[in-house]
From TrEMBL:
The gene is hutG. Belongs to the arginase family. InterPro entries: HutG, Ureohydrolase, Ureohydrolase_dom_sf, Ureohydrolase_Mn_BS. Binds 2 manganese ions per subunit. This is Formimidoylglutamase.
Length: 324
């Protein structure tokens, strides 16, 4: 049975500064509170999926289950740049290979966080987190609107891979967006999926064909460069304007291997971080991001927490609200 377990408090450690107004010297580790139901406060809600069963089933290099706590360690010391609260909802631990149970537990916890008014940030774990995140958002919106017809969710996935595989023996880290496409078909909904940074050398032509059949939008890694910036911003803006809600997911294997060695399936080329930052800013400006997550962090292959720091930096980019 998969279980939601609070994190050890000693994960949230860091420097304490006294040189200035105490409101302006806060770091994440000083803001974090464990989540208690009906806390009545909005803010960020961190929720880990300590699971590598999806990667195992997808024949990848396991180790991602230890990812969420190391991303927290790297978040701990970052400066806090928001006016609201920060909650740790804990980790859903996938036990005895119960991936489907873990995804269900994850999505149910996400629904609670969304009902509280939080912006949930998922910490992976393999990319099976995406089905849990999408399903949690879809269930929440269905309950809010009393009907699934009001769901107009766009998924933006930064990833070297489409993750549109058809499940063989159950779901895996390679199947989440196929599962979403199936869900949309059953509910009579459009499937809105934009995959950024997908690599021709990491996906077979069959997977490109499947993306086309499903009307998925994609931009390949070699198209993501500065000379193409206007086009990239236009594509992202056009996609976000088409939907009411955005679920944003970043698979760390979309970055070059020297920036993100700690993943199951490293890219060779990867997309540039400076362009990614601009695109993330564009997505953030849409004010439609309801759920975000970081996937595929695998500490077994990381060096000096380089990939975990990158994950924390991405979360900070997406959530900070500096005074302009
Ligand atoms: N999460 C996705 N993983 C990739 C793995 C590719 C590989 O192991 O080489 C995929 O299924 O395409
Ligand atoms: Mn992926
Ligand atoms: Mn990937």
């Amino acid at each position: 049975m998969s279980e939601l377990i609070p994190v050890e408090p000693n994960i949230w450690n860091g420097r304490v500064d006294h040189d200035g107004d105490s409101q302006l010297t806060q770091r994440w580790h000083q803001k974090i509170k464990p989540y208690t139901e009906h806390s009545g406060s909005s803010g960020l809600g961190l929720l880990g999926l300590a699971c590598d069963e999806g990667v195992r089933r997808n024949h990848g290099r396991v180790g991602a289950a230890k990812g969420p706590d190391l991303i927290r360690k790297c978040l701990a010391n970052l400066p806090w740049n928001r006016n609201d609260d920060l909650f740790d909802l804990g980790n859903v631990h996938c036990q005895d290979g119960d991936l489907e149970g873990a995804q269900t537990q994850f999505s149910q916890t996400l629904v609670k966080a969304l009902k509280e008014g939080m912006l949930p940030v998922g910490l992976g774990g393999g990319h099976e987190i995406a089905w849990g995140s999408f399903k949690g958002l879809a269930d929440f919106l269905t309950q809010e609107h009393k009907t699934p017809k009001g769901l107009n969710i766009g998924i933006i996935n930064f990833d070297a891979h489409f993750d549109l595989r058809k499940p063989e023996k159950g779901a895996s880290s390679g199947t989440p967006f196929w599962q979403v496409a199936q869900f949309c078909e059953h509910q009579g909904l459009d499937f809105h999926y934009l995959c950024l940074g997908v690599s021709r050398s990491s996906n077979t032509p069959a997977l490109f064909e499947r993306a086309d059949e499903l009307n998925a939008a994609y931009i390949t890694d070699d198209q993501i460069h500065r000379d193409n910036l206007d086009f990239l911003i236009e594509e992202v803006t056009c996609f976000t304007s088409m939907v009411d809600h955005v679920y944003l997911t970043i698979d760390l294997d979309v970055f070059p291997p020297y920036q993100a060695p700690g993943v199951s399936a490293p890219a060779v080329r990867g997309i540039p971080l400076d362009i990614t930052a601009i695109l993330l800013h564009t997505i953030k400006q849409s004010a439609k991001v309801r759920v975000m997550d970081i996937a595929e962090y695998n500490p077994e292959f990381d060096h000096d927490l380089r990939t975990a720091r990158l994950a924390a930096w991405l979360i900070n980019q997406l959530t900070d609200q500096p005074v302009e």
